[in-house]
Amino acid sequence: MTASPEYRSQLHSLGCRVTRQRLAILHVLRDAPGHLSPGQVFARARREVPGLTPTTVYRTLEFLRTHGFVWQSSRDRGHLAYELAHDRHHHLTCLRCGRETALPTAEVERAYGRLEAVSGYTIDHEHVTLSGLCPKCQAEPPGV
Ligand SMILES: [Zn+2]
Ligand SMILES: [Zn+2]
């Protein structure tokens, strides 16, 4: 893992301090295939930053979220997951098996456009995550 200059300059340009924790967490999310829970971020980032605590990870993730570096989504019955803010995308997660499906961006934009027209709000929809039951789980009897 190399320290990436692009995060340094992005943090700088926002007037944010560049800390090892911030960089380590950005690297972990950059190298992750998808969304990570704070626990997973902690497990990976502590290899880069000895002495890191879960509390620091939570605080840093919240900091990075408010500054637009990462997106937060709610999954697994309200547990939060994080990923680097990148291309606009939307997904659907199965509450039972955890399967994830991408939602077609055009459809999501259209639906939110209609909701904005009806409500008069501007709705934050750069990263929409919906949850439900996938077709496979709907076909199976509920487990114990
Ligand atoms: Zn996502
Ligand atoms: Zn499922």
Q: What's a concise summary of this model?
A:
The protein is built from 6 helices and 5 strands, in the order H-H-H-H-E-E-E-E-H-E-H.
> In angstroms, what separates the terminal alpha carbons?
43 Å
Q: What structural class do the secondary elements suggest? A: alpha+beta
Largest sheet: 3 strands, mixed
Could you say which overall geometry the principal axes of the C-alpha atoms support? globular
What are the key terms here?
single chain, 144 residues, alpha+beta, three-stranded mixed beta sheet, two-stranded antiparallel ribbon, 6 helices, 5 strands, 43% helix
What would you note in describing this structure?
This protein has 144 residues and is of the alpha+beta class. The protein has helices at 5-13, 20-31, 38-45, 54-66, 105-119, 135-139; strands spanning 70-75, 79-84, 90-94, 100-103, 129-132. The strands form two sheets. The protein has a three-stranded mixed sheet. The longest helix has 15 residues, at 105-119.
